[in-house]
Fold these 4 entries.
Entry 1:
Amino acid sequence: MPRNVSFRDFDWVLVAFVLIICALGVIEIRSATMHTKFAGVHVKQMYWIVGGLGGMLLVSVLNYQMLLEQVHWMYIGAVASLVTVLLFGQKYLGARRWVKLPGGNHFQPSEWVKLILILAVAKYFADLQSRELSWSDFVKAGAIVGIPMLMVLAQPDLGTALTYLPIAIVGLFLGGIRWKQALIVVMLAGLAMPLAWHHMKDYQKQRLISFMAPDSDPRGAGYHVKQSEIAVGSGGLWGSSSGSQTHLAFLPEPHTDFIFAAFSEEHGFVGALAVLLLYFIVLMRLTQNAQTAPDRAGTFIVMGVVAVLAFHILVNIGMVVGFMPVTGIPLPLMSYGGSSVLFMFLALGMVMNVRMRRFVN
Amino acid sequence: MFGRDEKPSHIRLTAVQYIILAIFLFLAYGLWELQVSKSDYYAAAAEKNRIRNVPILAPRGKILDRYGRTIVDNYTSFTALLMRDSSRNLESDADLIAQGLHMNPKEVREKIRHFAALPQYQPIYLKEDITMDEEAFIEAHKNELPELDSIMGYRRLYPRKGFLAHLVGYVGEVSEDMLNQPQFELYNPGDVVGKSGVELEYNQLLMGTNGSRQVVVNSHGKEVGEALDEKPAVPGKPLKLTIDVDLQIAAEEAMEGKNGALVAMDPHSGEILAMVSRPTYDPNNFAFRIGRADWMKLVNDPDKPLLNKAIQAQLAPGSTFKIIMATAGWQEGIAQTLNVHCNGSAEFYGRNFKCWVAFEHRVHGDVDITKGIYQSCDVFFYTLAEKLGIGRMAKYATAFGIGQKTGIDLPDEATGVMPSEEWKLRNFRQKWFAGETISVGIGQGAITVTPVQLMRAIAAISVGGRMVVPHVVNPTNLPSGYIEVSRYTDVKNIPIDPNGWNVITDAMARVLLPEGTAPSAHIAGIDIAGKTGSAQVVSLATRAKHASDKDLAQNGWFVGFTPRRNPDIIVCALFEGGEHGKLAARFATQVIKAYVDKQRRQPTNVAKGPVKDGGVEVGALWTSRGEDGNEDKLNGGQYQVDLPKKPLESATAAPGMGGVN
């Protein structure tokens, strides 16, 4: 470790807030799984968090500029891992998303691909020499994110593929996209929508339909949305004493994708708002770190993390309150799951990495 | 140009912060909407999710015979079902489940797959009417197989082998059509209701009111914790029939293996004592669901096993109609003095009408009303018919209820036909031919009756003219107002001259004597009066040419009673394809004998001792002398007691009914 880099500059405030959110998640996982076959997974989640903290420290001491120099290798490695999943992945519920690791664990490579994409996009925009974005820059940046995104879509995993999009969007936005360009892209995307619909899997269409009209088939595809709304709504202001939606298993996936619904049922509007506030503080703290980054690449890295985290929160909590379709995107830091926890802590490690070098030069 | 270290625009970074703030306000608004604005609505929805009303099924009322002996009972039946708890892999549990429920694992898997598309909260019904060891298996594996459960219901336990099947009827799930009818509007889909016979006619009484339990259930429909509220079920009321099981046994035995019907009645009250229709069916097969193939077989059977022939078969009465003719002739002052010489045939309206003796190459010679009855001389009644004319014949026959429903308390009674000039004009727009009158005079031609109708007419004559209404349930045994008692008591009396009554019933008593048409049915020591009949399906001449064709065989009838005047019991037997009334007479007299034996406190022939193999046959009830030699002792009914102890061999048959061919 260079002499001028020190853990004094580690963002302990950020870590504290992150750990509060994680603790709430663990408590809720315990409560939601108490009477199911998943009982006890909260302990596993704690191991993941401890492991994540270790990973965070490890990532924070590597010089991110050094990492950026090697990012093209990592990018190739990321694409290769996605190819591996497509060819040899474990098929579960009709999609190949998981690679079996020795020791019985499963790993979802699409999670850590996010990390590499953040670095790759940061590197790309940091190296740009022009203040304004040319069309060829735009296409190249799009391709960096687009290639892995298409591969994840092919798994098929629409939800995770979508989480790559904000990395590109924030990159382009901060990289100096012109309003005219943005407008043209949005219009093209609008035109491509019917084509996308045509290529969607039936279950994906079903989810979108049930999102638009959840009452059309309350026991079928709209069931998740409906039960989640009931769980959140019955929580009221201070929380429901019986917590029946969660504990009688009406709420699907109460410890993973719908953990926020389970939390909202048990702790009400006050509790849910408190969690939102914690996330908001974390995000604001992160953007502050982006502003104080030592260089352009550092800002892009931190903002990439901000983009992914904010997007996850928007889509997950939006889904729980019925504003967004069911996509299977977990709530970072709270939802049970090793891949998700590890990604978040490694991403925070990169933020720390940038922060700890803010006074270098 | 700018360098590597030049930061992205501050304005854009701040913009990102505001976008994040907007996202959080948007999410907070969503939470506010659900948790504050509409929290009452969602709290109620959560309540509705977890609180479920579970019906407590009410057992149907028992059906008893006139002495309170059980004919139809219920038994509790368990159905195995699978709760589709997502935490279990049903496919991998299928082998163990199949083993415990004695099913084929393939069958279990198929059911799981077949119902995969159904909503999760609907359990899969694996096996109906499971046996006790299968129920024990479910109980014992509550932890290993939490998805396996059972629910209790009631099933009807009918007597075996179709005993009294047509009268009792059967139950089934209420159909869509029935629910649309006003009398069934209070029923719910899935309710079990009477579908035929007494089960249908007295359904309202027999059917109980289901109770309900408010329980907390989880998302898989499994009950959690104690019931919140409970409303007990009101069981259906027991129904006492007028049937005497002892006589019913005799009647069933008499008709075993034949086609036709047999009815026995108390001619003074109209109470039906026994009713048999053959062929029969086993209503236990209908107690829940009958396979389509089995059902179609029953429906398409040319012998019509589903028809209650006692009230639904409409056939020519043949010579039994001569009793009504004789009464009409006496009342009109013709029969007293009518003397006819029978030489095998006679000519009316230019056509030759044969007497049945002609086919035996004999003649009746001089015939008066007495000989006309006991020898069943056709020529005598041809002549009487010619003198009476169809108008007066129809008047008397109609008065005795021919061509009308008797009003018996069973569904779908048939009407029969009493032809007349108006009837022909109305139905065929044709004039009545005089020759038809001659055929109707011996119960042939267009005239048709049901066994119960014919029995009622002759019962009226046997008691001096009182027209009772046959019934299978005594209205005094019913809750007041359920049925109008006056329906059975306000009956008309048809005046019959006592001398004619004596002459006709005396003549009927000679039918079973050596000079009569059914001497073989005579039972020593019992004064039976009766009349045989054999109704042609085709004309006698055609019949003679095709003697071997079964479809053209004549139907044998017999209506008999004891004693000859003011009788205690009247029996009508119809033997389809029975050729001659004397065979029908033998069946009928067996029932009469059983009745008399019972009156005289003699053990009946039909069931003298305990049934072999430890099991007691359903309906095997009999009377016998007690130890002191004169006490009337009732045996039977033990089949209910035996049930729980007996191992149940097969789940498809009702308990106690398995393993019987």
Entry 2:
Amino acid sequence: MASESEEKLVAALRAGDEEAFAALVDELSPALLRVALMHVPSRAVAEEVVGDTWLGVVRGIDRFEGRSALRTWIFQILLNTARTRGKREKRTLPFASFRRRAEEGRHEPAVDPDRFAGGAWARPPQEWEGAEATLESDETRRVLLDAIRALPPRQRDVIALRDLQGYSADEARNALGLSETNQRVLLHRARSKVRAALEAHMESGNL
Amino acid sequence: MSCKELVELVTDYLEGRLPATVREQLEAHIALCDGCTAYIEQMRLTLSVLGRIPEETIEPAARDELIAAFRELRASA
């Protein structure tokens, strides 16, 4: 499963190669922070989660067996750390396993069915022409980030890596250990809901 | 292809994952449909705003501490 360059990297980390570790920290920390920020209530806690993740990597690298990709393993440590911290900071939602199944279900429409009449738009989306200033505002960014935080966890992780961090589909699949189809289904659900949240925001007196 | 069906294909379309025949149907639909054209444009704008939210990383001091911890822990390993 592990590529040749990844085996070299793991060997370097095990041998105590500081430069290799620093390069990996610099490469992955922005993405880890993006994902952590979607799981815990503050920037300070998110930074601690990322720090604890790296300590977990340093302590655990000897036990890493290469059954998953190195980056999948690191993101897994991050998500476990964030989940533990998130539980301590605020109550998480019950029925997690039910929610996970619902997340992957195929019956969640991209757009509220009430907006269609017999398959065609009854209430079509409007153009956002001339609304550039609103789109670029801090308020709009806040609305978008809140919409992402409100998503089920796996949708949140996929959209954070794909659309905030700019990961390719393969990079995101690799980080999160998802199948190709699963990645696309989760991304579709996530993007559809975030677009709907932005549309609601743009229509609430901003157009 | 109805509008209601089209919105479910938008991610595959933007990802370049639609089979050619379906992509042609979708493009033929949007050529004639203002609502779906606006929908796809809204999606593109949403992604463009998301993509421009600046990247952040951990504090330099935290980074230095991690590298020091690596040195310490791996040296004693």
Entry 3:
Amino acid sequence: MARRNNLAGWLLVSPVVLGLVVFTLYPFVASLALSFCEYDIFTPPRWIGLWNYETMLSRDPLFWKSLGNVLYYTILAVPLGILFGVGLALLLDARIRGLAVYRTIFFLPSIVPVVATSVLWIWLLNPQIGLVNTLLRLAGIEGPTWLASVRWSKESLVFMGVWGVGGSMLIYLAGLKDIPASLYEAALVDGANAWQRVRYVTLPMLTPVIFFNLVMGMIGSFQYFTQAYVMTQGGPLDSTRFYALHLFYEAFQYLKMGYASALAWVLFLMVVAVTALLFRSQHKWVHYGR
Amino acid sequence: MIDEEKPISRRRKQILWIVRGIFIAAAAAGALWLFVGYQPPRHKVWPGREKVVFWHMWTSNWAEVVQNIVDRFNESQDRYEVVPLTVTGGSLKTLIATSGGAPPDCMAQWESVIPAWAERGALVPLDTLMPPDEWHALRDRLYTAVRDIGMYKGHFYGLSTGMNIWAVYYRPDHFREAGLDPDKFPRTLEDLDAAADKLFQYDSAGRITRIGFSPRWLVQYVAVFGGSLYDPATDRLTFTNPRNVEALEWITARADKYGFERILQFESGLSTTMQASWPFISGAFSMVLDGQWRVEQLAKFAPELEYRVAPIPPPKGGKPLACWSNGNFMIIPSGARHKEGAWAFMRFWSGVDKPERAAEFYTWGGWLPITPEVAAAPIYQAYCNKYPQFRTFLEVMASPNVQVTPPVPVQAYMMNRVGWAEDAALRKTLSPRQALQQAARETEREIENDRVGKE
């Protein structure tokens, strides 16, 4: 009976297991092997040892450029995302009229598909007829060319990212609801004012959620692709050529599948390393209320 | 301990029924679509013939033109049946089909795939499909650009079905308004600059409201200045050829005069460059560089618009009737099963065997032909009489000064870097010479990476 149950169980999960093996595990392992090969799809892969990794470090200036871009974006976008996410959650945790409406309004952008958001922002940031520059013009400021400007292209994408913090805001809101009221009562008894309650109760108790969003945001930033692909294609002057976009071009435009696999593995290792660092740092600042 | 099952409430039952209803309705709609609405792919009409699978990139009206040409071919002989299929994103799908051992027999692609795929042995050399004397005769008849794009390392891999040529579209009404004679289009680049200066317009805040002429796209002007990005004799890149540097210096000087940011700002506010909303129609540009396909579009979307077309005038020491050219090319993947059939179809369409017959196909698509014989055919001449502006493009097409993208295996990377160099010079990040030097260095390094990686 137990054996039959076992078999039935395996049969039921087999589509998922097969899918994982064929579409995730196999490509994962294959890409590691391909990263040591010259492979252009047309001809069979040919072993070239560490050539791809050497090329990356010493013969591909765009590797460093794209890495610099992604680090710049991560350093700017992730903290800003947390700042705005937590700030919004705190505001929307207040007991005011029409709270559900406000929450819906701020959450809505995060459920718009990325490509649609990108197209919308191309228009919002249009230097001539876009809403952003029109508002700036009303204030007497001639706005920059945003996505077409080397100086502002990455910042434009960061602004757009901040617009979509509704998803993380919702998680922060859930985190806020989880903070025991007794802690606030104790703080009140101790004479803490509103800022002190936020600083010494809310934020420490929210750190597990902030930590989660930090890790997820960092991983997402390292893989930043769609918005840049749709809005700027890496330009101007490679200022938005992010790591994943560079990888994509190497693979599907220049047919360097082996090199692209090597890039993917370096990205993977970087993400693992930064995630590990974050996990190691958490005992210093994340409070699990134990 | 097992929980006692709770009875399902009436409300839950209702919800369950609604969910079931939705599923049943969706399944019924799917089945209805399968049996009634679904159009199966076109099957063979002549079962006894060899099936030649042809992948192309055209949709809607263009796909109909392709279908008509295919029908003509299928009716013209009794050995092959070409089955066309629109495949968007064709190059990636062909890559996958080729690696899976099931490529189409022939396909239409942009010219940039030729060196990259030929280098990897993924294309059939077309010169091996015909006797040497026939190949030599064809090679001598082809327009220079058609031949140069199709060739890679001594073999001929692609045959064009339609070339693209660029020339200056201009508005006679703007010319008259600015005190210029539209019958005397500038004959030199210096005169073109002077005319452009008179045609620019601004609003009270100093913002551009009309562009006289704003040159960009270095490869076009490299040809006009008499420069070159590549030396076929030495197989070396020549990005820093003094004439190329002069071309980029001229482009940046023109942008500086009106302010690159200001031009970008104005252009960003214009509608897309597609068909009816082309800003030339609305008068945002007095002169603009564009391709021959606009002639038919203008006839369709702005039949009343008065406009003319002229070749890009050369600077002192430059080349007349010059531009950069590209086009759609028919290729045969090396794993194709019916190479002979594919080649027969390509000959039929492009006019290699009967130029007079193929001339009609070119008029259906508004395409530029591959040989002077096709262009001279009465039906093509009648087309040019109907659209007189088209003659300018035909005239440039026949010129030996038309240039094509250098046939290097890393062509896509190279063009990306050339575009980068132009952008860097326009934004003053580097001087034109430095920008071209850096683009050359990076492209040479990429060629070297590609070569050593293969060894």
Entry 4:
Amino acid sequence: MKIETFKYDNRIVRAFAIATVVWGIVGMLVGMLAAVQLFFPDANLNLQFITFGRIRPLHTNAVIFAFVGNGMFMGIYYSLQRLCKARMFSDFISWFHFWGWQGIIVAAAVTLPLGLTTSKEYAELEWPIKIAIAVVWVAFTINLIGTILKRREKHMYVAIWFFLATALTVAVLHITNSMTMPAGWFKSYSMYAGVQDALVQWWYGHNAVAFFLTTPYLGLMYYFLPKAANRPIFSYRLSIIHFWALIFLYIWAGPHHLLYTALPDWAQSLGMVFSLMLIAPSWGGMLNGLLTLRGAWDKVRQDPVLKFMVVAVTAYGMSTLEGPLLAIKTVNSLSHYTDWTIAHVHTGALGWNGFLTFSMLYYLYPRLYRTTLWSTKLANYHFWIGLLGMMFYVIPIYVAGITEGLMWKQFTKDGFLQYPNFLETIVQVVPMFRLRAIGGTLYLVGTFMMAYNLYRTAKAGQFEPDTEAQAAPLEKTSAVVHGKLSWHRLLEGKPLLFTVLSLVAILIGGIVEIIPMYLIKQNVPTISSVKPYTPLEVLGRDLYIREGCLGCHSQMIRPFRSETERYGEYSKAGEFVYDHPFLWGSERKGPDLAREGGKYPDAWHYNHMDDPRATSPGSIMPRYSWLLTQKLEIDSLPARLNALRKVGVPYPAGYENGPAQKDLQAQADKVVANLKQGSVKADPDKEIVALIAYLQRLGTDIKSAPVTTAVK
Amino acid sequence: MEQKIMAGIGGIGIYGIISICIFFAFFTLTLLWAFRLKQNYLQHMEALPLDGGEKNSADSIQLKKL
């Protein structure tokens, strides 16, 4: 048989590897800055661009899409070529993908500190960048499928299945969750409102974790673990079951992010049951990885690559056990909104994604540069300092999370809240935030050690831009074997059919969640006293979004006595029908604000924003003094109201051309008059006035009138 | 068991039951498929990552010993 000689492209792998290290360090540094501000709020240097609310999304986007994203592409571009015995489909698309992705990251790094955000978690980037993401992602998918189509290996290894599922599902998720109505170049409003928006967002958010942080890395585990251990995978059968069960189940579990919220009860319970079932395929995958090392544990003692992999796979098992447990409603009632969730995600991020990325980098650099690792000793130090850093990060935050949850729910024997002042519960856990920052520092130091080690390795070796390889061309095979149709061969022989079937598997879960979303739309009990926001409140709400207030303040009171005692009447689905986007939040570093309106005078809010510690000693909230001096931008008001009308908010026709401005002025003057009563002199054209108007509106629709529910 | 749990949830209606049924049908088919695969195919697939087709394999490079 004729043997073909061809070349693997190593340049693109190296480019993604360098980007992984660089963005990893940047993302972790931003994380450190955010972590420090949680016990030392003045670390923002009173600069709005580096204040917690704005850099928290920068940190999450940087580590997910820049660090893990580049790490994923590095691993895929290396393994796919070798598994297909073919060079990438198109070098041009490879480089378009690389530079396009880096451009998106830079755009995120510029826009998020500027406060240009949609506020939807892990989907914060504004619409022009979202379109760019879709274009680059499609390019990557074409390159992926094109390479598979021109492969010289008859069978598609399971890693490739995971890569295909990733490419397809991320595209579906991204497009569905990005449906927004632009109101200018860098402002848009979600097409969905309130409950629907929350359901779509967390269907996306959950599956961003599943199909961006998990499935591609599982594919990489199935390739790099056998390579590093130099032994076949423990059970290929198990990997097949792992793949299909995982991609089928994952997509259903999104509602577990919304337990006890205004989402209908049955959708919450469906999310909980499917989350619990996820334990089985996840642990199947973990065991498949760990059992691959059976009889080779002596290698783990010596090889840092395997050490990192073992911890990564174990961390995957731990987080995929903890995740379903957190999805049990009773556990979730304690854990939700607390730092427990932060600890959970960091077990996955630092352990699973971080350590697997490090192991791939240590594996690839010596091979790309055809040399040995500069220092195995330094890599081992990195392993231990990274592991220690991870422990120092997650353990204090687990303690903080459980402490918060218990303190929020604690009643005295007379039936009153034991800690009625929210601040008491946060002050209690501030020492844990300090310890967490130490853990993060250790992890970051380890990453710097790795960067130096890889740099020295590259200096010592010689880069091989193309690796020559040989393989026989793929024979045309029939799906009919010995007169019988082989479904397996048919499926594997036709990557496009395989792709369609994977898509069907993920869409079933998606559709079952999305169809009820439309049903909810018809069945959300509307509340007649709930009215659209006034023009000044719309602008105030947009400032709330710009500053990332929802990073610390939820707007969703759950139906527990501990919450209704503290915050007031629990939140109803009908209260959010004009909320584009929803702002329920997922974390409480400060109290819930769903019923904030009317709790404090306007002047209190003014002074609180100027210096939170003046009104609330010990508060960890940053100062927002720039809101007192910056002029409110009202030129875009017509575009904003127009966009909101297009997504369903019933502003009268022509309202934005004159009447809205008059209403805005009148309400601003009223806020200024209220401030004067509180001995505060303010101009009506400042941002703080709009923000106060919005905060004073929160939850008042229900307070102001008797609740009358009606079904549309 | 899941059907019983789901049936006890107020208002879950037909969605939950259909969801579980689809999953179990899907899962059973996957199991059947996986267990019908031939041993020589499985062995070939398990070993697939180990041969990348490189002429001069970089995998011969050993990491430095401590």
